[in-house]
Amino acid sequence: MKPFLFSAVSLLLPALCSAQSTPAEVAAELVSRARTGSDAMALIGSLTTDVGPRQAGSENEKRAAAWAQQRFKELGADRVWVETFSLTNGWARGIERAEVLSPALQPLAVTALGGSTATPPEGLVAEIALFTNYDGLLAAPAGSLAKKIAVVTQPMPRRRDGSGYHATGKIRSSGPAEASRRGAIAYLCRSLATDNHRLPHTGQTDYRDATRIPAAALSVPDALLLERLAAEGAPVRIKLVLTPHDLGPVTSQNVTAEFKGRERPEEIVVLGAHLDSWDLGTGALDDGVGVAIVMAAAKLVRELPHPPRRTIRVVLFGAEEPGLLGGAAYAQAHHSELSHYVLVAEPDEGQGPVYRLRTGVANTNEPSLKAIVAALAPLGISLGDNHALGDSDVRYLARGGVPTVALDLDGTDYFDFHHTADDTLDKISPERIGQTTAAYAVLAYLAAELGGDYRAP
């Protein structure tokens, strides 16, 4: 692993923030520094280039954990440690191939869903039962899909806040199980995506108590192709070959770094991101950029002449993609200390920019919260509601009573690349990642410095 070089201009920050600076002035300087030269771009470049894809439970995920430990030490963390946890079953992708056999010969771009079982080695051939929306599948009677491949082609709407993804998520997560319960021998769905490229989007599915059947996502153009063929009225027969396999029990890990507070080190502000990714791309947007943002934000605060009063803890969670497993393991392992957690936040919907701050706190009248809102306003960030539940992994901490902040990221184009081979470094914008890093640095610093209490007054 190559030595990591930080920008020389980072050495100038202490000179710019005197001991007499007010917290608001320090926050403004953090914004300036983040937007002109934080380490976020270097970090995401290193992670995606020197490590690459980081599927949960894989050797590359372990390499990413080693990378993170080394980087945290170089960033000046006071303490770095790893907590390992078990996954019941690892999963590996295999051959992925599909084609229409009749009424026309057409290749189809597909990718297996995480957790899918395999077809026979030679593949399977069957007529499709196509549903243009998920409700149609749910309305199908038991046994009505026997010997057929169920296909759901419902589109996902493009939304700034990512709500289109959450509204259609069951098509992928539960669709295979529902098709199986109705007798289907395989399942295909239109990718949960907002692009029109011939690149399918993967993601996890959960069979629960249903019989596992082969399941894959179609690229958007291929889902539209099947709709057109089905509309012609003749039976549509396809051949599907998928050869994923289970790996049995594997391990993953959470990597944690602490930047200790000067007066109340036992009180902790938590920034999280997930270190694993899917295997098709290099996990730049999901969630390498989140990793880079929280690491760079912590370093900016670490460079100040005086550390904030409270401790800032950065947690890089493992195994988020197969079901938030790292977040669950962390919350369980640290349950006894959650009363000491001041605030928690996690970026996991791309690079931003941040356009809105939402809270999940008991005390919305806390003065330091108003100071945070004021400090973020010059970045174009407005105040939203108080219904934040915690993004991704940190929702388990929120469920444990930890106050949460959601810095909502502009996800307008995020689902063009999400979970595809196209999730690569070239999609990262220095300007966008700079604004998001600034927001997280300001949030972490002011929550740690101002001593606010976001729990019930």
Tell me about this structure:
It is a single chain. The chain has two domains: 285 residues, 3-Layer(aba) Sandwich (Aminopeptidase); 150 residues, Glucose Oxidase, domain 1 (3-Layer(bba) Sandwich). Helix 2 runs antiparallel to helix 14. It has 14 helices and 16 strands. By secondary structure, the chain is an alpha/beta fold. The chain starts with 12 loop residues before the first helix and ends in an 8-residue tail after the last helix.
CATH superfamily of the largest domain: Zn peptidases
Radius of gyration: 23 Å
Q: Enter the CATH topology name of the largest domain.
A: Aminopeptidase
Summarize the biggest pleated sheet. 8 strands, mixed
How helical, in percent, are the residues? 25-40%
Structural class: alpha/beta
CATH class bucket of the largest domain: Alpha Beta
Domains (count): 2
Q: Would you spell out the secondary-structure blueprint of this structure?
A:
Layout: H1 13-16, H2 23-37, H3 40-51, H4 59-75, E1 79-92, E2 96-102, E3 106-108, E4 110-112, E5 124-131, H5 134-139, E6 148-152, H6 163-168, H7 170-173, H8 175-181, E7 186-190, E8 215-218, H9 220-231, E9 237-242, E10 245-259, E11 264-274, H10 284-302, E12 310-317, H11 325-333, E13 341-345, E14 354-360, H12 367-376, E15 382-383, H13 395-399, E16 404-409, H14 430-449
Helix pairs in contact: 2-14, 3-10, 10-14, 12-14
